[in-house]
Amino acid sequence: MALEIPVAEGGVTDVVATALLSRARTRLLQRVASAEPGLAQIWFRASVLERYRGTPGFQLVRTNTVGRVRGADWRLDFGISGETPGQEPDVLVHICARDLGERIPEGERAHWISHAVTLPASVNFLAMQSTRGACIDDGDLRSW
């Protein structure tokens, strides 16, 4: 079921849409924190989909806010964000982390990962997470 809300900047519908989005994000984060980490979202540049556009055996469809790519033996639903009517699109698509490993075939994963968008991160923290027990010495320990 899709919820379509026309958003007029600064209008009442803008406030309602923002509130609904905030509630949806909160519910999703609560589920991620309650042992459903596969629901965490991963964002990709929309150019990841170009590989499938017009390719025999693939179907690519969308509405204003969600889409689907379907191959001969796999299907992936995705969200669409970052599109502003009347402006040059800076579109991102997003999927559940679980779907990256379960729905996208192994042979397609490197393609998707190459289009991933990430927020700035601490390289040392990521190293600590990927190699448990890693010793990081990047300065003196101090209070925050």
Keywords:
144 residues, 2 domains, alpha+beta, six-stranded antiparallel beta sheet, single chain, disordered N terminus
- Share of residues in helices: 25-40%
What pattern of helices and strands is seen along the backbone? Answer: HEEEEEHHEH
The largest sheet has its strands arranged as 2-3-4-5-1-6
Structural class: alpha+beta
**Total beta strands:** 6
Distance between the termini: 45 Å
Q: Could you say how many structural domains there are in total?
A: 2
Indicate the multimeric state.
single chain
Strand content: 15-25%
Instruction: Tell me, briefly, the overall form.
Output: globular
Identify low-pLDDT runs.
Answer: 1-9
Number of continuous helical runs: 4
Radius of gyration: 19 Å
The mean pLDDT is 83
Largest sheet: 6 strands, antiparallel
SSE map:
Blueprint: H1 12-33, E1 41-45, E2 59-62, E3 66-70, E4 75-81, E5 92-96, H2 97-102, H3 106-114, E6 116-117, H4 123-130
Antiparallel strand pairs: 1-5, 1-6, 2-3, 3-4, 4-5
Please give a structural write-up.
By secondary structure, this protein is α+β, with helices and mostly antiparallel strands. It folds into two domains: 1-35; 38-130, no CATH class. The chain contains four helices and six strands. A six-stranded antiparallel beta sheet has the order 2-3-4-5-1-6. It is globular and about 55 Å long. The N and C termini lie far apart (45 Å). Residues 1-9 have low confidence and may be disordered.
